[in-house]
User: Fold these one by one.
Assistant:
Number 1:
Amino acid sequence: MKQADFVSLVMPFKDKVFRLAKRLLVSREEAEDATQEILLKLWKNNKKIGDYKNVEAFSMTMTKNFCLDRLKSKQASNLKIVHSNYTDSSSSLQNQVEAKDSVDWVSKIMEDLPEQQKIIVQLRDIEDYDYSDIAKMLDMNETAVRVNLSRARKTIREKLTNTHQHGIK
Amino acid sequence: MVLNNIEDLIEKYHNAETSLQEEAQLKAYFASDNVAAHLEHYKPMFQYFSQSKQEQYTKDVPLNSKKTKLYQWISVAAVAVLMLGLIVPSFMGPTEEEKQEALMVYNQTMEAFNLISLGMNEGKTQLTNLAVAGENIDEGAKQASKLSEFNTMTNKILKNK
């Protein structure tokens, strides 16, 4: 596989990889590093890439595992301070992107969700994947995906309603 | 009618029972301006979802692995050249010129040694002279002792008188 072929194969989903990484790692820089890492890993195995049934799903699984590993290693090596630094800078970036305060709230609410639910909401509500695809990517069954998604959506609704009413009262 | 439909969809949405089409419908509804007041608080959520979808990965990925491979091989080649430079001359042995040079140096040193040995021989002959002188001195000493003996003898004769 040549470089051009690889780029055209990867192009459609590299943004999705990046967004999932950013959802999990919060900071933009971290997410960019993770995306680069994953694309390089794919490129290194470009000879085997033809054997994968669904490169996109495979990459999403890779991203999920990679990011969770990153988070774990960070917690182990006590790099939390650095991480929250990144959070700060990225939230200011988000502020630039997101004009509305209430929209910003949603991202904060999503940050508080458990990782599993974050991933599922990201894949379903933002990337519009099928339940069956998500189930494959996360190695879960569809019912479990639905249950987790429903929980996550209800949590978001609850918190959103609360903040909304705070704004009024 | 439409509102009822949307409320149903939201309920289904929260139970994770909506299909992708229905979710698209919801997103379209909340993206529009005429959202019912009591559903207003869902708006930021769907707005956020569609906004986050816009985010793109803009960084370039360095895929030029060929170049890096070349760089790796350059270092290997450099080491190989260095090793060749060290090993080959010792395998080839000295060249003709070097042999001649070595011979010249050998001859020069031999000459120098010869000069030294000449000087040594001269010194040796002088040493033998010295040894001869030593012998003479010994003989003189012997004669001196004879003289002292003669002295004692004369003394004895004088006493007897």
Number 2:
Amino acid sequence: MLDLNAIIRGLELIARPELFLAVACGMLIGIIIGGIPGITSSLSLAIMLPMTASLTPLTAIMFLMSAYSGSLVGGGIMAVLVNMPGTPGAVAATFDGYPMTCRGDYNEALGLQICASFLGGLWGWLLLLLFIKPMAQFSQLICTLDMFFLAIFIFVLIGVSQETSLIRSIFSGIIGLLLTSIGTVPGTELTRGTFGISELDKGLPIVLCIVGLFALPEVFNLILRESIAPHDGRQSYEMKRFFAGGLSILRHKWTVFKSGCIGIIVGLLPSAGAAVASLLSYSIAKRAAKPGQKFGKGEPDGLIAAEIANSASSGGAMASLFVLGIPGSGSAAVIFAGFLMHGITPGTGMFKSHSPLIYALIISGLLSMIIMGVLALLFAFHISRIVLVPSAILVPLLIVLMTVGAFSFRHQTFDVLILLCFGGVGYLLRRFEFSIVSLIIGLFLGKEFEKGLLAFSTALSENPFDIFAHPISVVLIILISLLLTFNFFKHSHHISNSRT
Amino acid sequence: MKLHRNGRQIIIDFPVLVIVFATLLWAGTYYFTATGSLIQCQGSLLYIRTLLILLLLLAPFVLKSAITTTTRKPSSRNTPINKKQLFLGVSIVLYVWAINIFGYLITSIIYTSVMVWLFGIRDLRLLVLLIIGTGTIIYFGFSVLLGVPLPLWPID
């Protein structure tokens, strides 16, 4: 399973000081850019790609991969501090990270978030080093039909984990699915749902929808407060509390292990990515909450579950890229382009001809996590002051940052309007207890859901028993049925209890 | 909206009704416009139709959840929108409108400084710092470093 010879040659390849510099620079740029809403990791990698042309292939890919890992952490930092997920994968970090910040525990929240990112990334890369081939083979087993049932499973799981009603949660999810269908029909030049607006031909920019749904409504709440965190005489940042928060992760070993596995498995799936991984991991942790744990109100377990899965998913995404040559996300696609730019084609051929290079990249991924830990600590240490900035200053600045970030996404002013519209939608949905999380899951899984529905209808029309030839789908159908049955009985029990 | 019947109070969450009907109206219009233009893409239509049917099936249950019957005086869950929030909303719309005319640089600088002033910060040094900071982030950060083709000036 482990090619020790290739690993040793990989270690020899990375034993150069300029590579460490490339990793540190990539990581720093990634952390900073990841914190800007609208500038996604894929967009920032695309901006940096031409700059790597003069570098050696290994240095260039290591730089891009570090920037990718850094952006996942940077997005999380802003999600925890300002409720503004810089990257889609950071959405779930807002659920418990931001409430921790609001009650004044921002040092602990940041320490926990960085530590979770570090451990999640380490876990992801380590498993990649040990099981790269089986991981890639597993990702090949997943078919369109499995993705369809996985999408339904995630919907139901998130629906039953929400405090809002299951019906409203599924209703929001379907709105999300319908919203992703806007734009050009796959494989054709025909458009749908654009109502004649040409800017919508390429579909809705999901990352801006998320920023609108989460950050804009929060800005409206923030203006009524003096600052994000209360001024209670404590210093804006305290290293002691910072480390205490980080070390508290050791009390949540089971969540770390479970969320790491979820992150890696979901990272392997095509088009799922960090956002689905973290949302699924968060929902599972919430579902398994012990008495006294208050998810959504600043529960450390929730932040750990979200951030570990977010970070670990990068390991899974890289497995299918390195071995199969299939980029599972937008960022992986840019790294794929980076390989091609330097004359290397990722896939099965690369594993045969460049296996030391692959192992060098994986080891550098592990190394980048350590550098990330140090840089993120320094970065977060200074940026945590933001939580004590008066709202009167912070709110206008955040609005300007979001607006400019929205324009930067596709270089069109129409995207700013999309941001505003989704801000309004987010405000209304939150106010009237519709689930924003389900809407976001709908936005993420819409494309896969459409393909899956077609495959499902074809399977039904030809031979319904064909579904039993897909064991993963069968397992998912059983899990969906169990969840719905369990929820039904729980609901009935709750009603009968309230009547008595 | 509140109704009284047989000593019981029926509370209707009216905005929920609006959200449900607005969603159905949008989804319905979407489907019927798509049927005209996507005759050749039956798969695409199947997807939209399925989602529309699901929305129609769920809508009565969502509407039912918006109606509560109680004998007690309910606590006010939905606090009214604050004047400050309303002002912020209007200011954002005006800012986005002004961007298209005056460009990002001038509009953002004016917006930040005016809003900070109106929200009660009267420190002149801080305002100058904000003006320089906003200008630097937009010009150097986004336009020069990230290479975003922002329409910075009115003529852009």
